[in-house]
Amino acid sequence: MAANPIIGVFYHWLGGLASGSFYVPFRGVRKWAWETYWLVGGFFSWIIAPWLLATVMTSDLKQVLHEAPQSSLVWSYIFGVLWGLGGLTFGLTMRYLGMSLGMAVALGYTAAFGTLMPPIFRGQFVTEVLGTRSGLTILAGVGICLLGILFAGSAGVMKEREMSDEQKRAAIKEFSLKKGLFVATFSGVMSACFAYGLAAGDPIKEITVRHGTPALWQGLPVLVVVLLGGFTTNFIWCVLLNVRNKTGYQYFDPEIRPSGAASTSAAAIENPTDAPAEEMAKVAALSNSSPGRAPMLSNYFFSALAGTTWYFQFFFYSMGETQMGRYKFSSWTLHMASIIIFSTLWGIALKEWKGAGQRTKLMVALSLFVLITSTAVVGYGNYLATHNPLAQAKHRAVQTIARN
Asked: Which residues pair with 255 in a beta bridge?
């Protein structure tokens, strides 16, 4: 299948739309603690949807996983677990730096490490990135993406400065720049492990293609393994919160008990690559603030819808990656930029920027423009690679030498 970066960028935008939108159905959940609806949604995100779609869209899924090298399976799973740890510590980043600055720092690390480490690890960074026009163009697009993340964080900081002292204290009660930067670094690097898990699954992709899976769907079996790792981390943490907050009964009993009516962990585990907006935390707090009966059917429905929507970010990501040619590492930058674009647009639609000053709104618009530009530049760099016969010949020669 010939690569088509334009279609690849479109797929990544669809993935960003799914990631930026998944928390919206959670707004319909009522009378459940965060850990309860997050785990219910997680079953659909990390278990049901990956297995179902991989079974339907690929050939011989179980046999492919059986034939896969153990090292590929183990590392894909481990990187999934580490990605989950990045999400767990993201809540601390918000606690110490605030939503806006914390998001900018953590996302910056996630974008940089998730994009650049795979080609460095494979030994391709100097020859295929720094040594080619297309690679340098893509690298410029990564830099523009980081600049866009910086502008987005600056807009958030400007918004926080416009808040009253009481609002600031309520938003960042434990502000600590030193602790925040340390935790944000750990969270960002760990969250980038999702990209490493997908790269570790390259042998699985080759096997599933040999079994007759169309190249477009080759990444789906890898998602089964990586997301299993992410499920492990989140499952353990959510169950611990269920026990600590006495909210485990909520999965089966609609009667809300005062001891578990309001979990304080509403914003504790969101991953930097798909963190809900501030609006989500407020809705979660309100939905658990008073006792009563939980609407079980609608809660399960909205949690399942949110979880399935979340999964589609990587469903489309895996499709987009197949269209980016030999520079598929650039997919992570496209993914990150698209998430921030659509999350910001949702924030505007949900009036999260209501009351912000004119300069702040201009900074939001600038961040969107820069991020959109970054996706165009990265896409163009991949286009150059797929439409440059000399570069393609050089790449084939390098690959032949490497194999021999």
From this structure: 293
